[in-house]
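Onboarding guide, step 5: your first structure request.
Type a short instruction followed by the sequence, for example:

Predict the 3D structure of this protein.
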Amino acid sequence: MFSSYFEVDGIEISSSAIDLAKEWDLKTNFIQESVLEFRTSKRYDGIYCYDLLHLFLLKDRKKLIQNCVMHLKEQGVMYFTCFSDRDFNNGVGRNVEEGTYEYKKGKYAHFFTEENLIKHFNDLNILETGSIREYLTHAEKQQEYELRYIVVQKIG
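The system replies with structure tokens like these:
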């Protein structure tokens, strides 16, 4: 959707995910790299980070946000979605940090309260927060998720 209107770089660690994405979007420049380690001199007007932030422990969530801010132009805007503490999966698995559960060996899910989400972005101008319900269909079974979102702007 974005590449129809903007020059887009897509950062993804999985080569198979990139191959799949290329079937749908020929205009995006895909870069195979970890979002935690991504480095470029390029600065972006906007960063869209969908359903990723909640997959990390606190240290790496902070690292991801810092890396995004580093790659954002002044006055640039970022949009993040993440799991909400209202999601029915909240609490599933072994508790490893406050609000974070290991639901499979080495796989984590953090469930954000609105206050916790805002705290992660407290050095930025928060433009909007909210929540959305998402429905995904896998193998003809529909799954429902409760997500939070935040829109922030980099200031001086």
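Each response can be followed by summary notes, for example: Residues 1-33 form one domain.
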